[in-house]
Amino acid sequence: MFLDKDFLLTTDTAKRLYHDHAEGMPIIDYHCHLNPVEIYENKNFKNLTEAWLVSGTYGDHYKWRLERANGVPEKLITGDGDPYDKFKAWAYTIEHSIGNPLYEWTHLELKRFFGIDTLLSTKTAPEIWEKANALLATDAFKRRNLIKRFNVRVVCTTDDPIDDLKYHKLLQSEKAFKTLPAFRPDKILNITKPGYGEYVDKLAEVSGVTINSFADVVAALHQRLDYFANLGCKLADHALDIVVYADATAAELDKIVAKARGGEALSDQEVAQYRTALLKAFMREYHQRDWTMQFHIHAFRDLNTAMFNQIGPDTGYDAMNDRPIAEPLTHLFQSMEEEDSVPRTILYSLNANDWMPMATMMGCYQKDVKQKLQLGCGWWFNDTREFMRKQLTVMAQESCLPNFVGMLTDSRSFLSWTRHEYFRRVLCELLGEWVQRGQLPDDDEMLGKMVEDISYNNAHDWFHFFEKTEY
User: How confident is the model over 127-138, as pLDDT tens digits?
Assistant: First the structure.
């Protein structure tokens, strides 16, 4: 039956592994885009449209892309349409989304959060809207209570180096779960983007470091890393999109920074030199601090210029890139290995063809720490059963799957915790198949521990979010 208690669990082994070992494990969401302001303010959602399609200053661009493919007018997607009309447009889209992961996610969220088993359609939209909205008005559906309900122990947000982290400070009094910042320095890396000069000025202001050179940029960022660390930050994240590598002298880097701050155009070589030097500086810091570095690679962003100019970034107009990755990524890690400064690292690529090159490259720099380099879970367009299975298989075949730190939401929605359930079911399904084919022993003690570790324990231990005595 659709989304019954054993959905995706196609063997007896899979059922035991999931229900006896995965199902009850807590969640560590080490990469998401929830807004700490929303977590702190802890408000109720006004209605299901706000909770599902537009949350705070963000929206769910996964859903928006699908609605456009179904002919929904933009007024009912990102425009000023009536909230109920927007919800009906989503219900209409769901009717045409068979085979898309959003069909499963949508109904799983209805079932787990609201206890609604009814299939969403234009016919059932009125009753679902009424029932869900009544629940959303209760205390149990305030933002923090949604986090607690799913036994989430850690939420890592995505934060710019110049953020004051005010709401992270205020959230330190919350005892049920930790809300920790994650360092996301995309704006200082993206030297060709408009506003780079103004951003450097802001960085100088908040850090108290006068910036006249590339070394000053690094010094200012060092101060911000200290600031983040004092609030429990253990991770950094980089939306690299493409990977480049080029060495440069200090004089060349100073000239590049001066040109960019003055609004002059840079050559591809200069951009590569700047980005390489800055990534190396970051990697040294992360290694020294025992932080985890995340690279999100090969997103091809903002492809519809007209719509970007109209409604901005992160609105559903991104795709997958296929630029070279093996050589520049290897040059970067090799240069840092020569300094003994490779940090804990998770590598994600939006292009699944990159997974084998990344996984095999990782094996060249493993040392000191159990699974120091990890192949990140299926991300964004790969956040599906098929590609979850592929990522798990590549990780198993090229490294040590029992060491994997597992799933994350990468979401702006407070209703996305079910993605952890979905991933855990896929993990148990895959292991059950391997047992059935005789590739693994049918040993619940061994495999059960592995499932519990991937679901929660590895992330708990690997990221160092807790003191060793805290469980």
Answer: 999 999 999 999
